[in-house]
TrEMBL record:
The species this protein was found in: Vulgatibacter incomptus
Record-linked InterPro entries: Biofilm_reg_signaling, GAF, GAF-like_dom_sf, GGDEF_dom, Nucleotide_cyclase, PAS, PAS-like_dom_sf, Rev_trsase/Diguanyl_cyclase
Sequence ranges assigned to domain PAS in this UniProt record: 289-359
Pfam family, one: PAS_9
Protein name: GGDEF domain protein
All residue ranges annotated as the GGDEF domain in the record: 450-585
Amino acid sequence: MVVWRGGGTVSGGSSEAGAFRSSAPVALILDVQRPVLVEDANDLPESEPKALAEMLGARSLVLVPIHQPTARGAIVVCDPEARGWGGDALASLEDLADGVLTWWKLQEEAAARRKREDELDLLHSISQAAFLAPDVASAIFATLKQVCSFTGWEYGEAWLPDAADLRLSCAPFWFASRDDPFTRISRTYTFERGVGLPGTVWETGRPIWERDLAASSSYTRLALAAPLGIRSAVGLPVLTGDRVEAVLVFHATRLGKEDRRFVQSISTVASKLGEVVAAKRAEEQLRVSEARFAGIVTMAEEAIVSVDDESRITLFNPAAERLFGYEAAEVLGRAFDLLMPDETRARQSSLVRAFIDSGASDGEAPRRGEVTGLKKNGEEFVAEATIARLEVFGAAPASTFVLRDITERIHAEKLLKAQAIGDELTGLHNRRGFLLLAGQKLFSARRSNAACVLLYLDLDGFKAINDVHGHPEGDVALVETARLLRGTFRDTDVVGRLGGDEFVVLARSGEESDPVAAMCERLQQRFAEANAAGGRPYALACSIGAARWEPEDPVALEELLATADAELLKVKRAKKAANPHVRAP
């Protein structure tokens, strides 16, 4: 304790320099190190205590210091008259100082609790606002607004990596207390990794507090910030795992002393925001994909119909509405067999049921075929159908049909026959018709991943039939051969007469291990049965060359014909070598 008595004497074994570290009266209150007692300031020489007493209008006073880690001061008791305070008064004041110190600590603890509660409220409000935001932009803007409103910081901005993850660009959404050159020009900036405050936060993945931008070696926008009084900034990474999804930067005219706990709290907000951003981006991508899918389904020229595992219709696009004549609302939820005619309903429904029960999964090759459909007005039509198992955007897998009405194609085929693609004598396709329809069949076979066989044949001894029995009988032989071919092959196979006694057949491969041999055997059996029936002065016989067409290694129709023709020549040479003296019929 230092006691200042009349006459300027000092007791307590200390000098003025030992008691005080400042010459200003107000600084004396802040810097006093131990209790000070002045009994009569009028008797003091010029000094800090005398100046303080004059400032307070007192002749006697007592100072009791109060020191806290975050603040300092003193309790000052003064009297306009000179007086001797005595030890009891000083002890009472020291007790008072202890009480004040306890109260001070309690106030600081309460303020810290309130600040922490406010920070928790901020975290909750930001998380809620970001979660409820409809998109990434809204979520980030909500965060910028909440943080600036809570802290009083004047500017909040967001920086987003480009698609190549090479540069940060300023997001269009800012929170700013005013529109000024700093906001307008900053929007044009980009930052590479490690450049500027945003780029450094992006590079390190850690928050950075720049209390004095003028003293920062890495801050690149000082020329914009300084004229507006912007002196401080803090940058925060928005993280999902180790990836920086965005960088938030806040500017203020004064951020104050770095508060590591608050930075940690805001970093927690940024981390939560990272999760929200990742989720919002996934939602946006899903919405885009759904919209794209819906657009494709809507614009598709083919009818698209999906059914669930109970064969109920779940999707009916506009093209399906046009094809069947129903509006989607009329058929959704109803059984798929509504779209099938009575005579084929049981068979086609069982095929659909078999496909559903087969366990076909998303990604498996689709299955194709022809089906008969029934329009709302009762009209039937033939459609080319593709069916696949699809799982779209997390929904339950559905069996989806893509249907193309081929009624016009069938009609066109009939018209083509009428337009000189048919052989007038036999009723088969002529060369032109065969090449046209066989080309279409190979195209269809390639789409449906089906193998085919081409047979190239001519009649044995046809010249002798003409020479011995006359050309009218030769025509009879050609017509009979055409009849045998039609009876051997399916209506969907393409059968034609190329000219003279040359015939060709393009047929889908069967299930036999050797479909070529099986087809040739059936055809020769037909010829044998016709010969056994008699009625002609000669026997019909043919030589056959064959070529296989595989969808895995498709060849052009011309090449297929050339291969089968070459095989036919081999067969004819072999027959001639085996029977050199065989005479014509």
